[in-house]
Amino acid sequence: MKLFRILMLPLLLLCAQASHAEAPRVEKVVYHFSESGNAMGGLRNIRNHLDASPNAQIVVVALGAGIDFLLEGEKDKNGNPYEVVVQELAARHVQFRVCNNTLKARGIGKDKVLPEATIVPSGVAEISRLQALEGYAYIKP
């Protein structure tokens, strides 16, 4: 029995060390879109962000006029569809969230929202939750 304890001691010490080792920190960022005028510029910022930090966890929260680029058929001022860029970023694990309060206030059906986006009850509450409870940094493009 004494031999068993002697052999188990290094294993227990190793397990204790492993449990105290910190997991690698992940860069988490929420991008807040509340206006439609520079949505394509904001999406370019996100693309550049991912090019510099490929493992960043990015969530886009859109509310008010900022949801327009996440609606079917919407195009930028040059006639380029937003959907293509949204699909590209979603493939890079960017999450898109649309404020349901905005949809209701503007009379927009949920079926008009791009499939890459998730509808959340409140955009501002989602931003607050991500920052306060999940440690996301805040960026307003």
UniProtKB/TrEMBL annotation:
It comes from the Bacteria. Keywords: Signal. Residues 1-21 form the signal peptide. Pfam families: DsrE (PF02635). PANTHER family: BLR3518 PROTEIN. This is Uncharacterized protein.
